[in-house]
Amino acid sequence: MTNHLYDGVFGQHAASSKTFLYTANGEVSFAEFTALTDRLAGLLVATGLAPGDRVAVQADKSVMLLALYAATVKAGGVYLPLNTGYTAAELDYFLGDAKPRIVVTAATAATAIAPLATRGGATLFTLDADESGSLAEAAATHRDGFTAVPRGSEDLAAILYTSGTTGRSKGAKLCHRNLLSNATVLSDYWRFTADDVLLHMLPIYHTHGLFVASNLLAMVGGSMIFLPKFSADTALDWMPTATTMMGVPTFYTRLLDHDSFTGAATAHMRLFISGSAPLLAETHRQFADRTGKAILERYGMTETNMCTSNPYEGDRRAGTVGFPLPGIELRIADATSGAELADGEIGIIELRGDNVFLGYWEMEEKTAESFRDDGFFITGDMAVRDSDGYVSIVGRDKDLIISGGLNVYPKEVEGLIDAIDGVLESAVIGVPHRDFGEAVVAVIVREGSTLEADAIETALATQLAKFKQPKSVIFIDALPRNSMGKVQKAELRKTHDGLFS
Ligand code: AMP
Question: Where are the domains of the chain?
Answer without folding.
Answer: 4-14+30-175, 230-396, 401-495
